Amino acid sequence: MNQKELGELRRRLRPEKCAIKCVYGCYVNGNREIVSYLDEALGRMSQEEAEKYLSLLKKALSGTLGKNLVDVVFSTEQVMDSDEYRLLSALRESELKSGEIREEFYRKVIDSLDMGDGNYVILLAYDTYDVPSRDRNGGDLDESDQVYRYILCCVCPVKDGKMELGYFPGENEFHSCVPGQIVAAPELGFLFPAFDDRAANIYNVLFYTKSADDLHQDFINAVFHAEPPMSAGEQREAFESALTGALAEDCRLEVVQAIHEQLREKIEAHKESKDPEPPSVTAGEVEDILRRQGVGEEQAAAFRRECAERFGENIALNPENLIDSKRFQVKAGEVTLSVDPASSYLVETRVIDGVKYLLIPAGSDVEVNGLPVAVGGVHTEE
Predict the structure, then answer these.
(1) Which residues are paired to 156 by β-bridges?
(2) Cα(first)–Cα(last) distance of the chain, in Å?
(3) Fewest beta carbons less than 10 Å away: which of 54, 203, 250, 371?
């Protein structure tokens, strides 16, 4: 899925737009016991309550593609004949109306999911979308040539409310009160099947995780029985390991600066282009950056081989998962130096009298905790 397709579905999740008739679910306590069930008709809810339910479901379609939203892919064999695919298909084909099928799904989620000792709610909704045809300029036409039928699921922690000061009209006084338990934003969720090229892709699930570094692999293994993709944190760790493993002593500050700067520029250019597809970079492109920085042919080629082993041959990666484009931080012993990424080129390394130094030009204004200070010292001629 791309950003436009994601936005198209997200815009549907309003009471007046979607065809969701009921929201189903169950409330699970810290002992993995189902405390109560939810089977609520959207049409019988107040508009405020309906909007709150749809807002929670919509959050399972939020975040960054390739980071918070990742593709889980079924094999052809799974689609043809597997327990996990049969269950998801049964939920969809029954439009979630079968309590027995929902119960089987709830138990599979509860048995696989580790939410600590906390309580949580599993929410499910079924929707049908008459996908409008598009004209040459990308505008919607009145006619529809296909119907996209899908289920949305999200798992939301239930947290205790905080003590607040409330007004009690009968007593005409203010007293401390606790609002009770509150359903928080989802920790994870999924869309089945994925909405690729504005149609159902029965081989893909779009999986959502609130934390890009935690893909809830036990949940993916149990519910989809599929190999989970690498999380954003795992991708960055593998990329950094490939660099340090291949370059060794040649993994210099200026080399890392060049990689960070050029990947950051790629991310910024992609944002300006408004391309709905996520940005991408290949190991070959990074290999070219290494060569331009004077890294030897053998080490640059070794980096590419390391990437192939960790990510697969010729795979395109999202640069947003490889670097922190909003931060450039250098640590040396007890000192941590944070620099605006656009100015990272100002940081240099130097060896003076056998001692390694980090150097940055002081400029005209120097402050310590906001206090302007003068820069003094002995002027030396080189």
Answers:
(1) 121
(2) 59
(3) 371
Could you identify the residue written with the tokens 């289920």? Answer: 151
* Nearest Cα to Cα of residue 67 among 274, 267, 329: 267
What lies within 8 Å, CB to CB, of 299 at 6+ separation is: 246, 247, 248, 250, 290
Intervals of the chain under pLDDT 50: 382
Rg of the chain over all Cα atoms, to the nearest angstrom: 26
The whole-angstrom separation of Cα 269 and Cα 319 is 12
Give the tokens for residue 257: 């600066």
Q: Which residue, among 9, 12, 20, 14, has the nearest Cα to 124 in the 3D structure?
A: 20
Strand, helix or coil at 358? Answer: strand
Q: How far apart are CA 307 and CA 245, in angstroms?
A: 10
**Is 207 in contact with 69 (CB distance < 8 Å)?**
yes
What pLDDT does 143 receive? 66
Predicted local confidence at residue 366, as pLDDT: 84
Query: What size, in residues, is the chain?
Result: 382
pLDDT at 335: 84
Tokens 């909003």: give the residue.
326
User: What does the angle CA 282 – CA 283 – CA 284 come to, to the nearest 5 degrees?
Assistant: 85
CB 154 within 8 A of CB 25: no
CA pair distance 255, 266, nearest whole angstrom: 17
What was the pLDDT predicted at 354?
85
Cα–Cα distance measured from residue 258 to residue 250, given in angstroms and rounded to the nearest whole number: 13
Q: Are 201 and 192 in contact (CB under 8 A)?
A: no
pLDDT in tens, 24-83: 999 999 899 999 999 999 989 889 999 999 999 999 999 989 889 999 999 999 999 999
Amino acid at 363: G
Q: What pLDDT is stored for residue 166 in this prediction? A: 66
Q: Do 244 and 330 contact (CB within 8 A), yes or no?
A: no
CB atoms within 10 A of CB 202: 16
* β-pair type (348-352, 335-339): unpaired
- Cβ within 8 Å of residue 362, ≥6 positions away: 375
Q: Specify the pLDDT at position 60.
A: 95
Torsion of CA 191, 154, 147, 73, to 10 degrees: 10
- Rounded distance between C-alpha atoms, residue 155 and residue 27, angstroms: 10
d(CA 34, CA 26): 6
Encoding tokens for residue 261?
Answer: 């700067």
